[in-house]
Design goal:
The complex is a heterodimer of chains A (about 180) and B (about 475). Chain A is built from 8 helices and no strands. In chain A, α1 crosses α3 and α7 crosses α8. The longest helix of chain A is centred in the C-terminal third of the chain and has 34 residues. Chain A is globular and about 65 Å long. Chain B has a 6-stranded antiparallel sheet with strand order 6-5-4-7-8-9, with helices on both faces. Chain B is built from 16 helices and 15 strands. The relative contact order of chain B is 0.05. Helices cover about 50% and strands about 15% of the residues of chain B. The chains are: A mainly alpha (about 180), B alpha+beta (about 475). Chains A and B meet through α1, α2, α5 and α8 of A and α1 and α2 of B.
C-alpha cells in the first residue's frame, strides 16, 4: 500500500466518523485546546498503525479506545488538569451557540467529570454518540449487563448532582436578592 | 436559568452544539501528520535499533576479550604448580651455575639415567619405586630451574612445597620421609636439595621383612608373661602400680625401651627376648606391651585400631586401647605396604580360645527385644542371683549390670562372684542377650531395663513403672557418655 492510497483510505474512513469522534473527545476533555491536542495525538498513532487494522467497520471503536487511553495518559501526566471554561465557551459562542445552552452543558460537563472514567465513557458513548449497549460493551471489553448498570448508575448520580447544583444556585440567587 | 431541565434534554443540547473541530481542519491535520510520521517514527525506531545493536555487539566483544585474557592469565599462573604436566627429563640451562649442577645429586642422577635403566632391568621389583622417584626428581628439577631463571622468592617457595607434596606421594606408595637439616647423604639415601632444608627418603627397610604374626595368647599365658615381666621390671627398680601404665616398646629386640626413652640393660634385654620368643612375640612397628597391676596388653597399636591380646580389668584395657594411638616415630621407618597386608590378614588368624578384644566386644550386637513376661522372669532370676551376693534391690536405688563383656560382668562396678558368673551367662544366653559396648541392665524393685545406652538414644526393652523407666533412660549421665 502506497502512502497516497493509505492516506486516502484513512481520510475516507475518518470522514465517516468525524462527528462522533470529535464529540467524544470534546466531552472527555471539555477544552478546545485539549481536544485539538488529543485528536492530533490519536490520529497520528492510528495512522501509524493503520495497516494493522483488519476490520475497518470498527475504525471508530479503535479511535475511541485510543482516545480514551491517550486521555488517561494525559491525566496522569497532568496534561488535561484545568477545565478552561472561558475558552470553551468563547469558541462555542463564536460558532453561534446559545448562551443558555452553553451554561446547561457546562453544568453537565462538570457533573460528568465527577463520575468514574468507565461510567463517564459509557454515558458519553450511549447518550451523546448514540452507540448501542453491545457496541459499548465491545469498546470497553465487558458485558452488556455491566454497561447497563454503569449507565443507569451514572445517570442516577448525574441527576442527584444536577439537582443539588440547581438548589445551590437557587440559594445563591436568594442570598443575592435578599 | 432556574428552570428544571431533564438530563435527556441536556444531552440533546450537547448533540445540537456545533463541533469544535471541523472536518477540513482535521483532514489538514492528517495530511500534515502523514509526512511527519513517515520521517519521524521510522527514523527514530531505526536509530534506536542501530544503537542497541551497536551496544550489544560492543558489550559481547568486550566480554569475550576479557574472558580470554582472564583465562590465559589463569593458565600461566597455574602451570608452575602443576607437576603432572611438567615432564622435562634433562635440564640444560646456562643460567644455572655449573658448580651447582655438579654438586647437586639431582643432576648427577639424571646424567646416570642410562646406567640406572640397565639396573632396572636387573631388578624389576624396584621398578615402580624408581619410576615414582624419577617423577619427583623431574618435577623438582623443573621447578628449581624456573626458580633460578626468574630469581623470584615466590617461585622458590613453590618448589619447596612441590617437593613436599612429591615426597608425601612417595611416602604413601613406598617410603616414609625424614626431614633433616644440613646432614650428609649416606648410601641408600636420595637427597632433594632446596635452599632451606634437605629431604631424605630412606630406601633401606628396617624392622622385619617377614610377615609377622598377630599376638594371639590366652589368659593363662598372658598371666605368666605378666608375672615374669613384673620380676624383670622389679630387677630394674620399676614397680607396677594400678594408676600408671608401663609401656614396653617391641620395635626392635636389640633395643627394647620403656616408653621409648628408658633403655633396658643388655643382660635383662636377653631375658626379655627369651621370654618373648617363648610365646612367639616378634618385633614389629607399633608393637607394645602395656603393663599395669590390673592388666596386661600385648599387641599392635595401630593408628585406628588395636590388634592383639589382653588380660585383666576390661574397662581399663578398653580405655587404654581406645586412647592409645600409635606414635609415628621420626627415627624408625617401615614399609607401609607390609602394615597394610597385616591389617587384612589379622582377622583370619584370631582363635576363639584367646581373650581377644575383637571377639569379646561386638560393635553391633543384636537388639534386645523382649516382651514383658520374659523381662519379669529375667528380673526375678537376676534378683535371686543378686541376693546370693548380698545385693539388695530397693525401689529408689538402681543397680546397673554392665554387659560389656560376659566374662567380666560387673554390678555397679563390683565384679560378680566367679561361682555365679556361669549362671548369669546362662540367663543372658537363654534370652539371647549379647554383650555390647553400651549394653546394660538397670534393675530396681519397680522396673527392669535391658538395652544399649548410647550417647543420644536408648535401644532396648523395659518393663515396670513407666515414669521411673523414662527417668532412667533420659538421665543425663548416659547421654554425656
Amino acid at each position: 500500500m502506497t502512502n497516497v492510497s493509505k492516506k486516502k483510505e484513512f481520510i475516507q474512513l475518518y470522514e465517516m466518523h468525524h462527528e462522533q469522534f470529535i464529540r467524544y473527545c470534546t466531552v472527555l476533555t471539555n477544552c478546545t485546546i485539549a481536544t485539538e491536542d488529543l485528536v492530533q495525538d490519536v490520529l497520528t498513532d492510528v495512522y501509524a498503525k493503520f495497516h494493522t487494522i483488519k476490520d475497518t467497520s470498527k475504525f471508530l471503536h479503535y479511535l475511541i479506545r485510543v482516545a480514551k487511553f491517550k486521555y488517561l495518559n494525559g491525566l496522569r501526566r497532568k496534561k488535561f488538569t484545568s477545565y478552561d471554561s472561558e475558552i470553551f465557551n468563547s469558541t462555542l459562542l463564536d460558532k453561534g451557540a446559545n448562551i443558555e445552552h452553553i451554561y446547561d452543558i457546562e453544568v453537565l460537563y462538570k457533573a460528568l467529570n465527577k463520575l468514574p472514567i468507565k461510567q463517564k465513557e459509557a454515558i458519553i458513548l450511549f447518550e451523546i454518540n448514540g452507540f448501542s449497549m453491545k457496541e459499548i460493551a465491545e469498546i470497553q471489553k465487558s458485558s452488556v449487563g455491566a454497561i447497563k448498570t454503569k449507565i443507569s448508575r451514572g445517570r442516577q448520580k448525574l441527576k442527584t448532582m444536577l439537582s443539588s447544583d440547581l438548589t445551590r444556585s437557587i440559594y445563591h440567587l436568594k442570598s443575592i436578592l435578599l | 436559568m432556574s428552570k428544571k431541565i431533564s438530563l435527556n434534554e441536556r444531552f440533546q443540547k450537547i448533540k445540537q452544539l456545533p463541533l469544535e473541530l471541523e472536518v477540513e481542519k482535521v483532514i489538514g491535520m492528517i495530511e500534515s501528520i502523514n509526512n511527519t510520521i513517515g520521517f519521524h517514527s521510522k527514523g527514530i525506531s531505526k536509530r534506536k535499533f542501530r544503537f542497541n545493536l551497536l551496544l550489544i555487539t560492543v558489550t559481547i566483544s568486550l566480554l569475550i576479550i576479557t574472558g580470554f585474557i582472564f583465562f590465559s592469565i589463569k593458565k600461566t599462573t597455574i602451570t608452575p604448580n602443576n607437576n603432572n604436566k611438567v615432564n622435562l627429563p634433562v635440564v640444560k640451562n646456562d643460567t644455572i651455575d655449573k658448580e651447582k649442577t655438579k654438586t647437586n645429586p639431582l643432576f648427577i642422577e639424571d646424567e646416570t639415567n642410562e646406567s640406572k635403566e640397565k639396573k632396572k632391568e636387573l631388578s624389576p621389583s624396584k621398578s615402580n619405586i624408581k619410576k615414582i622417584k624419577d617423577k619427583v626428581v623431574n618435577s623438582t628439577i623443573n621447578n628449581t630451574k624456573k626458580g633460578i631463571n626468574k630469581s623470584n622468592d615466590e617461585v622458590k617457595d613453590s618448589t619447596i612445597t612441590n617437593t613436599d607434596k612429591n615426597i608425601e606421594k612417595v611416602e604413601e606408595e613406598a617410603y616414609t620421609p625424614i626431614r633433616k637439616s644440613g646432614k650428609k647423604v649416606k648410601e641408600g639415601f636420595r637427597k632433594f636439595t632446596t635452599d632451606s632444608s634437605y629431604y631424605v627418603v630412606e630406601t633401606t627397610r628396617k624392622g622385619t621383612s617377614e610377615k609377622p604374626k598377630t599376638i594371639n595368647l590366652n589368659n593363662e599365658k598372658l598371666k605368666v608373661i605378666k608375672k615374669e615381666l613384673k620380676t624383670l621390671l622389679d630387677r630394674q627398680g620399676i614397680t607396677l602400680s594400678r594408676k600408671y601404665v608401663i609401656d614396653i616398646w617391641l620395635n626392635d629386640f636389640e633395643n627394647i625401651t620403656i616408653a621409648g626413652k628408658v633403655p633396658i640393660s643388655k643382660e635383662l634385654q636377653k631375658e626379655y627376648v627369651k621370654l618373648l620368643n617363648q610365646y612367639n612375640v616378634s618385633p614389629f612397628p607399633n608393637r607394645k606391651v602395656l603393663l599395669s597391676k590390673s592388666f596386661i596388653i600385648i599387641g599392635d597399636f595401630e593408628t585406628k585400631q588395636f590388634r592383639g591380646s589382653a588380660e585383666g580389668n576390661i574397662k581399663k584395657i578398653d580405655e587404654e586401647t581406645k586412647k592409645y594411638k600409635s606414635i609415628e616415630s621420626d627415627k624408625k621407618v617401615y614399609d607401609s605396604k607390609i602394615d597394610f597386608a597385616i591389617k587384612k590378614d589379622v582377622t583370619k588368624d584370631i582363635n576363639s580360645d584367646s581373650l581377644n578384644l575383637i571377639n569379646q566386644q561386638k560393635n553391633n550386637p543384636k537388639l534386645v527385644n523382649l516382651n514383658n513376661a520374659k523381662l519379669r522372669v529375667i528380673k526375678k532370676r537376676l534378683r535371686d542371683l543378686l541376693k546370693q551376693q548380698n545385693f539388695k534391690i530397693r525401689r529408689r536405688h538402681v543397680l546397673d549390670i554392665w554387659l560389656y563383656d560376659l566374662d567380666d560382668i560387673r554390678i555397679s562396678g563390683v565384679p560378680i562372684k566367679k561361682e555365679l558368673q556361669a549362671e548369669y551367662v546362662n540367663i543372658l544366653n537363654e534370652y539371647k542377650i549379647e554383650a555390647g559396648p553400651n549394653r546394660k541392665i538397670l534393675l530396681s524393685k519397680s522396673f527392669i531395663i535391658i538395652g544399649d545406652f548410647e550417647t543420644k538414644r536408648f535401644r532396648g526393652s523395659a518393663e515396670g513403672r513407666i515414669r521411673r523407666i523414662d527417668k532412667e533412660i533420659l538421665k543425663d549421665k548416659w547421654k554425656n557418655k
